[in-house]
Amino acid sequence: MARPSYMVVDLAALIAxxxxxxxxxxxxQTMAVVKANxxxxxxxACARALQPSVPAFAVxxxxxxxxLRDANITKPIxxxxxxxxxxxxxxxxxxxxxLMVENPLQVEAILxxxxxxxxxxxxxxxxxMHRQGLHPSKIKGYRAQLMASPKVLDExxxxxxFASADELSNDLTQIQLQQFLQTTKSxxxxxxxANSAAIMAWPKAHADWNRAGYMLYxxxxxxxxxxxxxxxxxxxxxxxxxxxxxxxxxxxxVGYGQSWHALxxxxxxxxxxxxxxxxxxxxxxxxxxxxxxxRASLVGRVSMDMITIDVTELSxxxxxxxxxxxxxxxxxxxxxxxxxxxxYELMTRMTQRLPIRYxx
Length: 360
Ligand SMILES: *Cc1c(COP(=O)(O)O)cnc(C)c1O
Description:
With about 350 residues, this protein is an alpha/beta fold. Helix content is about 25%, strand content about 20%. The protein has two domains: about 10-230, TIM Barrel (Alpha-Beta Barrel); about 235-360, Lyase, Ornithine Decarboxylase, Chain A, domain 1 (Beta Barrel). A hairpin with a 5-residue loop joins strand 11 (about 255) and strand 12. Helix 1 packs across helix 3. The protein starts with 5 loop residues before the first strand and ends with a strand. Bound molecules: pyridoxal-5'-phosphate.
């Protein structure tokens, strides 16, 4: 008695991927980025599994950090965008949250805050992404103000973020790296640059702290095949089953809006997953799925609760057969391409309707 649709989250794969990130950059400390509900995998469960191995976590905001503290996650947690309002600073100090400081208002708020102990501050430098970070020419001044404040620990970290590290032939990464090293060279502070793509493909960007996100969940962010992908194992598997079968004639259409017509007599399997679960409505006809572990193509529009698959070329598909939408046998990046997006978005947009089965 259950809708046959669920997500599997393989926590052993998560831990193995974390160890792989460390192996690729053995000199660095590697924090685990578990923002956006651990990229849709369940932040508390993932943080519990990773906690014995990792020195620190990173999230996007204080709400996400508090959810981890409420679940007895005790390691330091970096707020990647810092605070949004001044009242978060005292909470951050009390809870051992590390603060990214990326704009002048955040600097001012820290200097004026009342804190129970000094804050661990990461100064974010805008080296070329132009989304967050202080201008390189202002770093010396802001650093001096923060260092002079009793509210801030002397052990600060300088950080930056890459815009295009996933593109292996893009020069911007090298330019950002140079700008960062130039801006920080006269200070003794720890450095942090690398996201997953830089951990995997830009060893010069490995520094004191690496920030691993997407790769922990077992897929490569890189735009090309690369040896550093070999140690990754997908953590998320999306499963459902065939719930209905039919034969249609040449010329007949399938689904809302008649977006697909059969070019031959076809066998159509209906599967119990849809955009209400997070499967992307933008997935076009031709998107691969695995029916009984064999590749077949999605045809017609994705509905809220169902999709339709052309199984004409498969041997005897029947109601109840297992269907994998992505997982170890079908890379989420490939599905994302057919949906005009990236694996990051597919993972994070999974909805509450799908039950998660954790394995380890
Ligand atoms: C999300 C994020 C990361 C992790 O990026 P991945 O590509 O998922 O590894 C690292 N640093 C910052 C500042 C981030 O926002």
